[in-house]
Design a protein that fits this description.
The chain has 147 residues and is α+β, with helices and mostly antiparallel strands. It contains 4 helices and 6 strands. The chain has a 6-stranded mixed sheet with strand order 2-1-6-5-4-3, with helices on one face.
Length: 147
C-alpha cells in the first residue's frame, strides 16, 4: 500500500513537471515567433496576432495599454528598426525573458542591446517590459511624436 501511494505521488509529480516544462517551452516559442516578425515584414501580422487586445507595453519612454496603441507605435518604429538578433531566451512560469540586439538605420544607433520580459496568458502575450539605454532614443521618439 505504501509503495502504491509512493508510486502514485511520484507519477503525479513527474507529470506535473513535464507539463510545466512544456508550457515554458511553448511560451518561449510564442515569444520567438513574435520577435521573428520584426525581421521579416511578411510575418509581422503573425507576430501581432500573438498579442492580447489589452496588451501592455512598457519601455523607458512609453507605456501603452492596448494592442492598437502598440501597433501604431510599431508602425512608426518600423521605419527605422531594421532587424533583431535574439541572443538568449529563458522562462519561468508565465514569464519569458529575452536578451537581444535590435538594429536601426539611425546613425549612432545601428546596434542596441536590450532585454525584454514577456508575460503570457493562454497562448497570448499580455504584457512586455523592454529595457534598453534610451538616452539617444528619446530624440527619435520626439521626432515620431511630432509627425
Amino acid at each position: 500500500m505504501k509503495l502504491t501511494k509512493f508510486l502514485i505521488i511520484m507519477a503525479i509529480t513527474l507529470f506535473s513537471s513535464i507539463t510545466y516544462s512544456q508550457n515554458e517551452v511553448s511560451n518561449q516559442n510564442i515569444v520567438k515567433k513574435f520577435l521573428d516578425g520584426f525581421n521579416n515584414p511578411e510575418k509581422i501580422q503573425e507576430s501581432l496576432d500573438l498579442l492580447s487586445d489589452d496588451y501592455i507595453f512598457k519601455n523607458p519612454k512609453v507605456e501603452l495599454h492596448s494592442k492598437t496603441d502598440f501597433i501604431s507605435l510599431a508602425k512608426k518604429m518600423g521605419t527605422v528598426i531594421t532587424g533583431l538578433e535574439l541572443m538568449n531566451v529563458s522562462s519561468k512560469g508565465d514569464w519569458v525573458a529575452t536578451f537581444y540586439v535590435f538594429k536601426s538605420k539611425i546613425p549612432g544607433l545601428e546596434s542596441n542591446i536590450a532585454s525584454e520580459w514577456f508575460r503570457l496568458d493562454n497562448g497570448l502575450i499580455k504584457e512586455s517590459h523592454l529595457v534598453y539605454d534610451a538616452s539617444e532614443w528619446r530624440k527619435v521618439y520626439e521626432k515620431t511624436e511630432n509627425q
